[in-house]
Write a structure and sequence with these properties.
Blueprint: E1 11-18, H1 23-41, E2 46-54, E3 57-65, H2 69-90, E4 93-94, E5 97-98, E6 103-110, H3 113-119, E7 133-140, H4 149-167, E8 173-186, E9 189-202, H5 209-223, E10 234-237, H6 247-250, E11 253-254, H7 259-262, H8 283-300, E12 306-313, E13 322-326, H9 335-345, H10 350-357, H11 391-397
Parallel strand pairs: 3-6, 9-10
Antiparallel strand pairs: 1-8, 2-3, 2-11, 4-5, 7-12, 8-9, 12-13
Helix pairs in contact: 1-2, 4-5, 8-10
């Protein structure tokens, strides 16, 4: 089965990332902050929260559910402050988008009883999937975190710039930024940085593209392997010139619009479902995490150098309809054997996934920027899907 471009050994591949201050990421952050607030109250809370941001305005909508209607009413009152806290932490204090003065409109309401009846467990049936859909997980040996290198390094650059902006080390950088990394592959391994594109908001009107490059270049060089830089490396820093008006004032934002940034930078297929603002009964999120977890463990176990794993679900049905594995010709064992093993070592029903990865915790706000994958597992259960604790079980099962 031919794949683009991963079956080739020599090629250039590009991925982009966007910072926590990007308008869409502001929205992802608010949606996940609402989710965390409700999960702190009740681990089985239901949340499908969408956020829209534009000049001086944030609009929040969707469905939420708690078992206690009184508590739900209290949380409704807290929503605007949750949004403001996110915006303040990201760093927006612009005339036309300020955490304290922007208008926050809350249109969240209770979850549909008709959706709930398909999802909830009943006497005669397991809890079903919250929706139909397909989810993909991917892992490869290109980086220590078993992530494709272009997306991993695009994220690293922006995380570093956010750190120095927030610490005060680089006070003229603004919250809104995008990066793009093009790597040349030889023999299937990244060997050279061909292009780096970085656009960052800045606060000083007089700063030129050259000024911004002088600020950001040392940090970019810190984050990427030195041997990747060469005479061929092209730099495009703030190529449009000024970038002072940024964030939702410059461009509207929406939850769930950066699904390739959130996952593998285009190096793997995507099922189409977004993550932020969705509680873990929703397989768009939980099964995509499970698929990454399984793919990563397949690679960590030495069963393949690259692994793409697909799961599919039907609304109200507990078990996945299908499990598909592709190791792009790098597998040490037959793909069908891995497919069987995956189903044996992990319960892939929605409840099974939540219990195995302990997803009913307020761990989601931190996922909203710089990727949901390729991160270090946290002591409190955040990024639990990045653990490689199933590798031995998989080896035995194949």
């Amino acid at each position: 089965m031919e794949h683009f471009p991963m079956s080739r050994q020599d090629y250039i591949f590009t991925s982009e990332s966007v910072s926590e201050g990007h308008p869409d990421k502001v929205c992802d952050r608010i949606s996940d902050a609402v989710l965390d607030a409700l999960l702190s109250e009740e681990p089985e809370a239901r949340v499908a929260c969408e956020t829209f941001a534009t000049t001086n305005r944030v609009v929040i909508g969707g469905e939420i559910g708690l078992s206690d209607p009184q508590k739900l009413a209290e949380y409704m009152d807290r929503i605007p402050q949750i949004a403001r806290d996110c915006i303040r932490d990201i760093g927006y204090e612009q005339d036309k988008f300020h955490w304290n003065t922007c208008e926050v409109q809350n249109y969240l309401h209770e979850q549909s009883a008709h959706i709930a009846q398909g999802v909830n467990a009943a006497e005669n049936k397991d809890e079903g999937a919250g929706d139909q859909g397909i989810m993909f997980g991917y892992a490869c040996t290109e980086t220590p975190d078993l992530m494709p290198a272009p997306i991993q390094y695009a994220h690293k650059i922006l995380r570093r710039l956010a750190e120095v902006r927030k610490s005060g080390a680089e006070p003229t950088l603004g919250p809104d930024a995008k990066s793009q990394v093009s790597l040349r592959y030889e023999g299937g391994k990244p060997v050279e940085l061909m292009q780096i594109v970085l656009s960052t908001q800045h606060t000083d009107e007089t700063q030129t593209s050259e000024d911004i490059r002088a600020i950001v270049e040392p940090y970019i060089r810190e984050e990427l392997p030195a041997e990747w830089f060469s005479a061929n490396t092209e730099w495009h820093v703030n190529p449009t010139g000024k970038f002072v008006i940024g964030g939702p004032d410059g461009d509207a934002g929406l939850t769930g619009r950066k699904i390739i940034v959130d996952t593998y930078g285009g190096a793997a297929p995507h099922g189409g479902g977004a993550f932020s603002g969705k509680d873990p009964t929703k397989v768009d999120r939980s099964a995509a995490y499970a698929a990454r977890y399984l793919a990563k463990n397949v690679v960590a176990a030495g069963l393949a150098e690259r692994c793409c794993l697909q799961l599919s679900y039907a609304i109200g049905v507990a078990k996945p309809l299908s499990i598909y594995v592709d190791t792009y010709g790098t597998g040490q064992v037959d793909e069908a054997a891995i497919e069987r093993a995956v189903g044996q070592v992990m319960d892939l029903t929605p409840r099974g996934i939540r219990q195995h990865l302990q997803l009913n915790k307020p761990i989601y706000q931190r996922t909203a920027a710089y990727g949901h994958f390729g991160r270090k597992p946290d002591a409190d259960g955040g990024f639990s899907w990045e653990q490689t604790d199933l590798a031995e079980a998989l080896k035995k099962a194949v």
